[in-house]
Amino acid sequence: MVPGIKSIWHDVEDFQIPNEVHRVILYHTKVHDEAWRPNEEDRGTSCDNDKAWRKPMLGWIKVNTDGAVCRSSRKAGCGGIIRDNYGNWIKGFVSNLGYASVLSAEIWGIYHGLVTAWNLGFRKVELESDSSQAIKMIQMLREAGSNLRPLQHKISCLLASDWEVKATHIPRNANGCANTIAKHSLASSIGFNMLDNHPSVVVSVMLRDANNSIIHDPVG
């Protein structure tokens, strides 16, 4: 694995809810600066030709995930939404992570999204995130060897399971639902929480996505 990527994975996995908050804030400020810069560039310049959310292919479901970090408190969380090829809500999730970098939150969102889709029995999954760095790191795990850290190993095992997963980087404008839910995670209880019903704050974004999108045709 590329040395720089290996170092970032170390930071992704080693965060924890702190006892000495001031030390953790100083540490994660450094980590955040490293992760935030490419994230902002990704979100501002990519995929200008297709900024709308697209419905998944027939027979597939779509998982959109995102991470969020409060600038003032430094608390982090992630969230995600699973929808069918009509844009209908299937399930969602939030996870309050404590203190973490932006990239950490993005990676944990992807992990929870994959686990949720697998546990619900879906075997054809389109995974989308607006962090190109997170998507690149996930895609690298498909070719990774056996010397993996715990979270890397979990994601690698998920990707190697008996299902089809297409991981794609999308612009932020196409990830509005996941972005809204991720922000919602900052006010949730610590840990992972499944959402059987959609939060009221995401309804308008879901309707916009469903009305503005078409079912993706892989050959058209």
TrEMBL record:
Superkingdom as given in the UniProt entry: Eukaryota
Annotated ranges, domain RNase H type-1: 64-184
A Pfam cross-reference name: RVT_3
InterPro entries in UniProt: RNase_H-like, RNase_H-like_dom_plant, RNaseH-like_sf, RNaseH_domain, RNaseH_sf
SUPFAM superfamilies in alphabetical order: Ribonuclease H-like
GO MF entries: nucleic acid binding; RNA-DNA hybrid ribonuclease activity
Name of this protein: Ribonuclease H
